[in-house]
Amino acid sequence: MPVTIGALKESAPQETRVSLTPEIADKLAKEGAQVLMERGAGERARFPDSAYKNVAWAEGPDPVLAAADVLLAVQPLTVAQIAQLKPSAVVIGFMQPHARAAEVRALKQRGLTAFAMELVPRISRAQSMDALSSQAAIAGYKAVLIAASQLQKFFPMLTTAAGTIRPSQVLVIGAGVAGLQAIATARRLGAVVEAYDVRSATREQVKSLGARFVETGVSAEGTGGYARELTAAEKAQQQEALDARIAAADAVVTTASVPGRPAPKIISRAAVERMRPGSVVVDIAAEQGGNCELTRANEVLEHQGVRIVGPVNLAADLAYNASEMYARNLYNFLKPALARGELVIDWNDEVFAQSCLTRGGEIRHEATRKALGGET
Ligand code: NAD
Questions:
Q1: Averaged pLDDT of the chain
Q2: Catalytic-labelled residue, pool 14, 88, 109, 127
Q3: What is the C-alpha separation between 212 and 196, in angstroms, rounded?
Q4: DSSP per residue over 112-160, as a string?
Q5: What is the DSSP string of 49-117?
Q6: pLDDT tops 80 at residue 246
Q7: Nearest atom in ligand 1 to 227's CA
Q8: How far away, in angstroms, is 136 Cα from ligand 1 center?
Q9: Is 124 an active-site residue?
Q10: Is the pTM of this model over 0.85?
């Protein structure tokens, strides 16, 4: 029996992305799968139903939920949606395991196999499946465009008949995937860019993009390429050195995060008060609590003339490209398990094993199991 692969119109109000694009729906059909989608699923990402070939359409989400052997999603499914899936179904998407206890429990209790795209190991072979990176790059790009549009200054230096305009100074805090894209984007727009990260490995990457690396004398190498949390003394030292650079910046873009933890607070109220009126902070860690003390998620506020923007789900602002990239990530993840239209998961494959959140009535991801009080 060919596998039925389903995709819904995302139900979260701010979610404009779609998990299946025409390109990937076509590829899955060519692999022998049956693709079943909810009508209008791609509309908000500007993929009209008419752009999809070889897809069966359902009115509303219920028939898709009832028939899918594999359900591809962007946002975590709701508990009510999970209740409608077949017990044998496989769900693949972002699961936000540390924020969605009720949903994780529902997946477990239904005995479903759920793969969380956040948990795909960051090994070379899995780069084409790395949805955290593809979506973070979009967020970094968009954050700089927001900063440029909020600022009442040019980014580039201009030499005009009315005299020379100095370029804007941009500071990017956190030079991971989003931060590096933010640096590249700000440079393309002609700003003078500085960047800072607690991981010293980023120094060379920052410099290679034509930005200056801010030295604070603090290193926070953690395991697995991620940062560890800093001690109080380290934080104070970092803060002191950074505050001076924050005060000098016209626009600050913050992207710092530590996996599974609230975002580190890096810009204090006092640091904002040292910034020049008209300066801008775009805090893309807003959803995780923000890197700036004053950030409020989904709001633009002004403090002593400094604008603080706390955008959420920035990737959805570029829904077309974000969906293209995300759908390709999903396809690259799923393809090794598709054999002549059937689903065969090789549990010895570390990508499947490590990204599995629930299976057979158990929570398979250890950190999530611990966070939920050790229950299996
Ligand atoms: P992330 O979103 O978890 O964090 C963003 C950045 O914030 C990181 O660079 C982190 O070091 C930094 N940060 C954390 N605390 C900070 C603080 N207090 N001050 C300043 N900066 C702080 O990270 P990410 O963008 O997802 O990437 C994490 C790492 O994984 C990077 O080294 C990246 O290159 C690597 N990576 C590897 C692969 C792969 O090998 N397949 C794929 C993607 C990313």
A1: 95
A2: 127
A3: 9
A4: -EEEEGGGS---GGGGGG-HHHHHHHHHHHHHHHHHHHHSSS-SS-EEE
A5: GGG--SEEEESSSHHHHHH-SEEE-SSPPPHHHHHHS-TT-EEEE---TTT-HHHHHHHHHTT-EEEEG
A6: yes
A7: 11
A8: 10
A9: no
A10: yes
